[in-house]
Design goal:
There is one protein chain. With about 425 residues, the chain is mainly α. The protein folds into two domains: about 190 residues, Up-down Bundle (Growth Hormone, Chain: A), CATH 1.20.1250.20; about 190 residues, Growth Hormone, Chain: A. Helices cover about 85% and strands about 0% of the residues. The protein has 18 helices and no strands. Helix 13 runs antiparallel to helix 16. It is globular and about 55 Å long. The relative contact order is 0.13. About 5% of the residues have low confidence.
Amino acid sequence: MNFALYKEMLANRPVRRLLLVGMIARIPHSAAGVLLTLHIVLTLGQGYAAAGAAAAIMTIGIALGAPWRGRRVDMVGLRKALIPSIVSEAVIWSLVPHVSYAWLLPLVFVGGLFTLPIFSVVRQSLGVMVDGEQRRGAFALDSIATELVFMIGPAVGAVIATSGLSALGLTAVGLSVSAAGLFLIWFNPPTRSETACSPEESAERAADELSAAEAAMVASAPGHVQEAASEMAPAVSRNAGLRSRVARNFAWFTVSVAALFAVAAGAGMVLSGSDVSIVGLLERGGHENQIGIVFFFWCAASVVGGLVYGAMNRPIPPMLLLLGMAALTIPMGFATDTWSLALLAILPGLLCAPVLSASSEKVADLVDEERRGEAMGWYGSALTGGVALGAPMAGIFIDTVGPGGGFAAVGIGGVVLCLTGLLLLSLRRRAARVPR
């Protein structure tokens, strides 16, 4: 292990500034979920089911918007791509506290659709700023910063909402995220290296190579073939151009990248399901005022795990890390009180930041810079989709089986996902080795 990597990276001013801005920008959004839920329940007088529906609609908006926002960064650059998000965050979250529940739903969907793509921007920029072992450490630091955010944000949001200031809190969320977006525009961290060509240049280069190949083939053909080729040239050129564009648009989405998206979805499912199960188990036991103790142990373990993983000389496959985290989540269902649950949360918590760090690092390694923003957007959507699945999945098992059922459901689900993925990847590698 090389813990000196962290000192080297934090001595790099652009990297240090990007990690700090990313952390600060995430705090308002981490508080927004709690603020929105308690605003709907306490201020609008709706039930938790209505609050859950609003959260689900916002999550759908985020999942749909993340790849599109990432693609805009790839196509037009960071500064132009962030402008719609900056305007939307300020306007939407200033309106949400002052409308009825019926109007709130479409507003939070649009807000989710135009969410500032802080996750994909930070990871994409880190992938350009650092490489090799430093990239692993940088992603680990970003995962650790995210854990610290989720120690702070929800707690602050709960205090603000229960103090009767949910409207002020939601407005502050939008304004502070917009301010973070403006700072990103001023800072303008790189999203691709100077040697990487733009998407338009890549398209022109591919078209030139295709035209040269076609010309060489036609020139070497007999006269009657050349005559036929000249008549068919426009149609062939159009079809070839369409095929080349489609190939360029989807070439980055390989089986390996799809496996990483599955890991992201599985991690989101396990984490959100564990979140709900912790609340359910303590609430059923009458210890809901001690939820913070369990979350502190869980998040602190993740910070330690992230520091250790980031300093390692060799990466660990993300699917193996997720397999361990999912399997170690199951025993949390056997906890009998707050302290036993907090201690059982340490082991899966140790693997939380490493899972997210390892999978992000692998996406950055596998996807070229020209499409990395879009890939990170899809990665974020997969993670968000897993979060949206894990919470209701755990809730159903908590209601039907008991508090421990939520941990078992998401833990076993994660194990099955990983074992299936490992089996499919093994079969694919075996098939690739078979001579044709």
